[in-house]
Amino acid sequence: MRSGAKVAVIGGAFVLMAGGIGYGAYSMLGDTAGGSGGTQSASESSKVKTGPPSAEEITETSKNFFDAWAAGDAPAAALLTNNESGAEPVLASYGEDAHIGKVKITPGPATGTKVPYTVKATVSYEGKSKPLSYASELTVVRGLTTGKALVDWAPTVVHPQLTEGATLKTGESSTPTIEAVDHNGTVLTKEKYPSLGPILDTLREKYGASAGGSPGIETWIEPADEAQPDVSLVTLAKGRPGKVQTTLDAGAQAAAERAVKKYAQASVVAVKPSTGAIRAVANNPATGFNAALQGKQAPGSTLKIMTAALLLEKGLVTANGATECPKDAMWQGRSFHNLNNFDLPDGSTFTQSFAQSCNTAFIKLIDDVDDDAALAKEARDVFGIGLDWKTGVVTADGSVPEEAGGEAAAQYIGQGTVQMNALNMASITATAMTGTFNQPVIVPQSLDKRELARASRSLSPSVVGQLKTMMRATAAWGTGKDAMATVGGDKGAKTGSAEVDGQETSNSWFTGFSNDLAAAAVVQVGGHGGDAAGPVVAEVLRAGG
User: Rounded CA gap, 54 and 29, in Å?
Assistant: First the structure.
């Protein structure tokens, strides 16, 4: 929604000055600025304060900053920050470019040096007005050279979604709004489905101009990176939205939104295996980085679905064949062990090792594979990982780099240099179910005739059947039993726990299927896969789609 509209500055005055805020006038001395501003006498400089600001200083500094900001005095407000040159243009654009006035800022109780606050204001443009309200926070620090208490400048001080180099603007949008609908025609909005906010913004940016709508008047955040979509904040006058069909399912999306809210950081994606249609995408927190589609981290033992496919294709195992599962195993000087150092008795089957998530059963077979790059090839050639997925929005498409030695062995159990997100793992599960990679899409290919990624080969029916057998066992009596107990239909699962950068509690991963729906989730620092991510996946699978 890049705007070509003219932006007026009424009478050359800062819009906020007309806001009717009754703040008393006061002078701002140069020595309130940190580092770069003001002068001091020799006696003053010898008394420069150090250490954290006091509670009184925090209250006074934040109040003065809020008063100057609300009054539209951008230079004065900027002087009260530790980055005057960076703060002033952003604060000035609040009124000049975004036309935000009648600003009332209400601080909450400070927590240490952080001061939370709410902003209530009015956006006015060409005779149209709408209220704007949001919450943010600032931090008060001590100036490095003056010793004065100052606001630690960041764009998020002005608005929590404002990033470095981004600007707030109000005017006629260059991209018409869209009415996104699910595959059944149900309207999808960011108000009802918060996780879809970034996705709907991207769909508008990509397809709004060709969807048959007309532009309206809005307030938005325009990112510094033109590849990123604008973020709409307020609609002053609606244009005529164009309709954009998605593959999403409103019921599955609602379930996904509920499920991720139970954890501080969680992501889930659901995919229809027979077509690759993305049925749900949810994150908590819902705003900002879309971890479900763009995240990159080790997926732990959920990747054993892919490793098992490799071992089955090479004829090194069968679902019902005997496999060793000792407490630990060594590979080229690197030691691997099972959770809580469990082992399985002699004669246990590969299905038992898979269902109980035995790491060593997989590690001990690496010698027989005799190709360090085998898993990377399997990922690319069968599961489509690392190909250029054109889903309709920006995604990270997974990575299994070619490695050697112990690093290659770590990949067999989803550790090391493997990088995945919930979308990638849902797709891997979907491919295991059908045997053929169907590139995930969030808008139909017919919308823009884009070329979808294609894997070079499929799995044999025998391998698919054995993968399903092992995943069904995991859901019936293995590590996924408790999480999948409430899921009906033909169902299967795989759990995973992944430690990243030595964290004490692992990330919780889980992927599963029910009939023609596959879903995968990750809960940061959630522990065992079945404990946190498992219930998230189960809730989405129960919703169908």
Answer: 20
Query: Please, is 114 exposed, middle or buried when counting C-beta atoms within 10 Å of its C-beta (0-12, 13-18, 19+)?
Result: middle
Instruction: Name the amino acid, one letter, at 168.
Output: L
- List the structure tokens of 506: 């692992």
pTM of the model: 0.74
3-state secondary structure of 157: helix
Q: Regarding beta strands 178-181 and 187-188, do their DSSP bridges make them parallel or antiparallel, or are they unpaired? A: antiparallel
Please give the order of strands across the beta sheet that includes 167-172: 167-172, 217-222, 231-237
- Which residues touch 368 (CB under 8 Å, ≥6 apart)? 314, 316
pLDDT tens figures, 218-272: 999 999 988 788 888 999 988 888 899 999 999 999 999 999 999 999 999 999 9
Separation of alpha carbons 540 and 545, rounded Å = 9
Rounded-to-integer distance, Cα 57 and Cα 62, Å: 8
Q: Quote the Cα angle for 517-473-283, to 5°.
A: 40
Chain centroid, CA 438 distance in Å:
23
Q: Is there a contact between 135 and 119 (Cβ–Cβ < 8 Å)?
A: yes
Distances (CA, A) of 405 to 154, 338, 409, 420, 449: 45, 19, 6, 21, 43
Q: What are phi and psi of 401, to 5 degrees?
A: -65, 155
